[in-house]
C-alpha cells in the first residue's frame, strides 16, 4: 500500500475540484452557445422557417409574434365559428332563443280562498309558462298551471300584462288553452309545432320558460328517455312522456321544449325531484298529444273521449283468491272485473256481462261472477288508470276490440264507444 503525505492529499483534492468545475463550465457554455442549437435539430413542427435558420435566429431570438412552442404546434381540431366568433352550437342556441323567446309568456293566477268569517277573497295563486300558438292570442300551457284559477294573467316579453280567459282544459293530458286579446297593432309570433314521433335518445333539446319567476330562461340538454308513463293521479296516466336532462324547474311548466330546428316537440310539465329542484330528470308531454286535442279544446272547451258503459273493479290478491274459491275466477291475477253493465248500453249490446252475486270488501259493495277484461284497443288493462289510458285517445262512435275472460275461456268482442260523461 502506497502512503501519501498530507500535502499530496490536499493537492489531489484541489486538482479534482478544478477539473470538475471546468467540466461543468464547459457544459454550460455549450448549451448557451447560439450556434450550438441550430434550426436543423429542432422538431419540424416548431414552424421555424428557412430564412430564420439561415440568419442564425433561434426561437427565443425571433419576434414575439413568430414564437411558437412545441406544445402549441400540436394540431387542434377546427371548431366551426360564425362571424360573431360563436361556435356552431352556440350560434344555434342563440338563434332559437332570439327567434322564439318573445313567444313564451308568463302566466300568473288568482284563486279564491275563504277567510275566518267564511267569506271568499282572491289571493295570488301559482305561476307558470305558456307558448303562443296563434296570432289571435291563444296560448298553450299545462292544466295544472291554470287549475282552480279565479283570474288569469298573461305577461309578454315587453312587460305588457293582459287578463286572459280559459278556453278549455283537459286534466287527462294536463294541457289547457287560454286566450288574451293583444293590443291593437301588437303582432304575436306563434311557435311552430313539430313532432315527437321520430325523436331519439341523445338528441339535443332546448327549453324556454320562467323558472322561479326568472322570465324567458333558456336551458339545454338531451333527450334521456322516451315513452315514459307517468301516473299523475288514481285515474290519470300521462303516456309517452319525453324525459330530458334540460333543467325544468318550478315555473317552467307549460313552456316549450324545442328541437334544434326551432320546432316545439314537447310541453314541459314536471320534474322528478325529492328536493323540489331540478336534478336532471324532467318530463315533457309530446307535442303530438297537443296537436290532437288543442283543436277540440278551442272548439268545445273540452276533449270528447270514448267510453264503455260499465262499472269495473280492479283485481287484487284477496279478490283473486276469493273468486277462485267460489269457482268464479279466471286464469289471470290482474285485470278488471266487470261488476255491472248499464242496461241498454254499448257494453250490453256488445255482449259484456256483469256480476250476479253481491259481496262487500271494506265499505265497498260490488258484484262478482262477471267478465274479467284484460285488454282494450289492443292495450293491456290491469288497473282503473290503464282503463282510462287505453281510451284516452279514442272518440265516441269509434269501435275498439275488447278481450276478456268468461270463466276460464278467453273471448273477444268489438265495442262501439259512447261518450264519457266526465
Write the layout of secondary structure elements.
Blueprint lengths: L5 H27 L17 H5 L33 H13 L3 E11 L5 E13 L5 E5 H4 L4 E5 L5 E10 L4 E5 L24 E6 L7 E15 L5 E8 L11 E3 L5 E8 L10 E5 H14 L5 E2 L2 E5 L2 H9 L10 E6 L4 H5 L6 E5 L2 E5 L3 E5 L2 E2 L3 H7 L8 E8 L2 E8 L1 E2 L3
Antiparallel strand pairs: 1-2, 1-4, 2-3, 3-6, 4-5, 5-6, 7-8, 7-10, 8-9, 9-12, 10-11, 11-12, 13-22, 14-15, 15-18, 16-17, 18-19, 18-20, 20-21
Question: Can you describe what's shown?
Answer:
- With 422 residues, the chain is an alpha+beta fold.
- It folds into 4 domains: 6-66; 101-179, Trypsin-like serine proteases (Thrombin, subunit H); 204-300, Thrombin, subunit H; 306-419, Roll (Pdz3 Domain).
- The chain has helices spanning 6-32, 50-54, 88-100, 143-146, 287-300, 317-325, 346-350, 384-390, and strands spanning 104-114, 120-132, 138-142, 151-155, 161-170, 175-179, 204-209, 217-231, 237-244, 256-258, 264-271, 282-286, 306-307, 310-314, 336-341, 357-361, 364-368, 372-376, 379-380, 399-406, 409-416, 418-419.
- It has a 6-stranded antiparallel barrel with strand order 1-2-3-6-5-4. Strands 7-8-9-12-11-10 form a 6-stranded antiparallel beta barrel.
- The relative contact order is 0.09.
Amino acid at each position: 500500500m502506497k502512503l501519501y503525505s498530507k500535502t499530496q492529499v490536499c493537492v489531489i483534492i484541489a486538482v479534482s475540484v478544478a477539473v470538475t468545475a471546468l467540466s461543468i463550465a464547459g457544459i454550460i457554455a455549450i448549451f448557451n452557445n447560439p450556434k450550438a442549437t441550430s434550426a436543423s435539430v429542432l422538431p419540424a413542427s416548431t414552424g421555424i422557417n428557412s430564412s430564420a435558420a439561415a440568419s442564425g435566429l433561434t426561437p427565443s431570438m425571433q419576434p414575439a409574434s413568430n414564437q411558437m412552442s412545441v406544445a402549441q404546434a400540436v394540431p387542434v381540431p377546427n371548431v366551426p365559428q360564425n362571424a360573431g366568433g360563436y361556435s356552431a352550437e352556440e350560434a344555434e342556441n342563440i338563434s332559437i332563443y332570439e327567434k322564439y323567446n318573445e313567444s313564451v309568456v308568463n302566466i300568473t293566477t288568482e284563486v279564491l280562498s275563504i277567510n275566518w268569517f267564511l267569506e271568499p277573497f282572491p289571493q295570488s295563486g301559482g305561476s307558470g309558462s305558456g307558448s303562443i300558438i296563434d296570432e289571435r292570442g291563444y296560448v298553450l300551457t299545462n292544466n295544472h298551471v291554470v287549475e282552480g284559477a279565479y283570474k288569469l294573467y298573461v305577461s309578454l316579453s315587453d312587460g305588457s300584462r293582459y287578463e286572459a280567459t280559459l278556453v278549455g282544459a283537459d286534466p287527462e293530458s294536463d294541457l289547457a288553452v287560454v286566450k288574451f286579446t293583444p293590443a291593437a297593432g301588437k303582432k304575436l309570433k306563434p311557435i311552430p309545432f313539430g313532432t315527437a314521433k321520430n325523436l331519439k335518445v341523445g338528441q339535443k333539446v332546448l327549453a324556454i320558460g320562467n323558472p322561479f319567476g326568472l322570465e324567458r330562461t333558456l336551458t339545454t340538454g338531451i333527450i334521456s328517455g322516451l315513452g315514459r308513463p307517468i301516473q299523475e293521479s288514481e285515474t290519470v296516466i300521462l303516456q309517452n312522456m319525453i324525459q330530458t336532462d334540460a333543467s325544468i324547474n318550478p315555473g317552467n311548466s307549460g313552456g316549450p321544449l324545442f328541437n334544434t330546428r326551432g320546432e316545439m316537440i314537447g310541453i314541459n310539465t314536471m320534474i322528478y325531484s325529492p328536493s323540489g329542484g331540478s336534478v336532471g330528470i324532467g318530463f315533457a308531454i309530446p307535442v303530438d298529444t297537443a296537436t290532437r286535442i288543442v283543436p277540440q279544446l278551442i272548439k268545445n272547451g273540452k276533449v270528447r273521449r270514448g267510453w264503455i258503459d260499465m262499472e269495473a273493479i280492479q283485481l287484487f290478491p284477496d279478490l283473486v283468491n276469493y273468486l277462485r274459491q267460489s269457482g268464479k275466477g279466471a286464469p289471470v291475477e290482474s285485470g278488471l272485473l266487470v261488476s255491472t253493465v248499464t242496461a241498454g248500453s254499448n257494453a250490453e249490446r256488445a255482449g259484456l256481462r256483469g256480476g250476479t252475486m253481491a259481496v262487500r270488501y271494506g265499505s265497498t259493495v260490488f258484484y262478482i261472477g262477471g267478465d274479467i277484461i284484460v285488454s282494450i284497443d289492443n292495450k293491456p288493462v290491469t288497473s282503473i288508470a290503464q282503463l282510462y289510458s287505453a281510451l284516452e285517445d279514442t272518440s265516441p262512435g269509434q269501435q275498439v276490440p275488447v278481450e276478456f275472460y268468461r270463466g276460464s275461456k278467453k273471448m273477444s268482442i268489438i265495442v262501439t264507444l259512447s261518450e264519457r260523461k266526465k
